[in-house]
Amino acid sequence: xxxxxxxxxxxxxxxxxxxxxxxxxxxxxxxxxxxVPVSYAGLISMIISFGTIVSSLNSDRLTRALGTGKVTxxxxxxxxxxxxxxSVSTQxxxxxxxxxxxxxxxxxxxxxxxxxxALHYKSxxxxxxxxMWGIGTMISPMVMGRVLAGGGPWTTGYRCIALFQIxxxxxxxxxxxxxxxxxxxxxxxxxxxxxxxxxxVFRLPGAREVMLCFFCYCALETTAGLWASxxxxxxxxxxxxxxxxxxxxxxxxxxxxxxACGFLTLKFNDTQMIRxxxxxxxxxxxxxxxxxxxxxxxxxxxxxxxxxxxxxxxxIHSTPEHFGADRSQAxxxxxxASAYVGxxxxxxxxGLLANNITPALFPFYLLALLVFMAFMHEQLxxxxxxx
Length: 387
Hints:
Blueprint: H1 5-20, H2 22-34, H3 41-57, H4 59-66, H5 68-87, H6 92-120, H7 123-149, H8 154-174, H9 176-183, H10 187-191, H11 198-202, H12 207-234, H13 240-264, H14 270-289, H15 294-308, H16 311-317, H17 319-323, H18 328-356, H19 362-385
Helix pairs in contact: 1-5, 1-7, 1-8, 2-7, 3-6, 3-18, 4-5, 4-6, 4-18, 5-6, 5-8, 5-9, 6-18, 7-8, 7-13, 7-16, 12-13, 12-15, 12-18, 12-19, 13-15, 14-15, 14-16, 14-19
Family: Belongs to the major facilitator superfamily.
Transmembrane segments: 40-59, 71-93, 99-119, 131-149, 161-179, 210-228, 248-268, 280-312, 357-376
Domain Major facilitator superfamily (MFS) profile: 5-386
């Protein structure tokens, strides 16, 4: 019966990816209907990000109080309610209101499931777990696109995804006995029943390093996904439709790369996987930097996606090894919060640089984040190996 949990966890991560790309795909149809400027998507995104930061920082307390299964079921139920709320919204302020449970639900389930898989499953399952997230990010734009192409309103697209989330919530609630059977008597629960404060987490050797490492990775991934198409068009002279297709290949590269990484983890450990990803990332950034034919820059972008593939899941999976199973939930909560701060702050910063200086800074910006991330990761390995 315990083996039934793994497909449920995979489906849960598909559900986590579904809302992440839905707003971007629907917004061109949403803002004219709502009568707001196109830039207002950033306000909704910020509210969602703040909610995920808050819930990530409190994930340790919630998970210890309720257990991973209940946190996952309640969080998915929260996002389902928020998506349904989006589907019945007729005013922009209503979207802002529903964005609060949208973000709070996403942060809790992200931290809880990542820690659960890091504690109970092999590294390959962490890679495949995040591959499922990538599948979710590809499904929701396809659903929204079909609805819009058929002449339906954007609200119908949101309602379709909300119904899937509601169905998944029911499955998760019915699966609660499986979670209890799996988590009872785990080393993590037995070793440290108390909740760690933020101050206690920050004082752990390597905590600041892993936080900054995660911040830089997520800042790099989000910046690449948001600005790659503009860089290719404005700096490399790539046609807009070609640039858009290769920007989508960045996410396809991450998803396919994580599927492949699940098999590579049979031979390489988490630290080796992270270093491998950083080397591939460096090759991709170098291809973006070098003058040459457009195909060189296009291939560079795909390499950046492939390089990103092993880093996020491997950092998460190595957390219990670096900090101990009893502290991993608290540390992963901090990591998730750092990730969303990076997502929130760094892509807009590059937008200011591109607008006021030049979009040609794009590969240099990625390179700076990569170098700092690699340095912080090596410091993390050095500090935690002493403990």
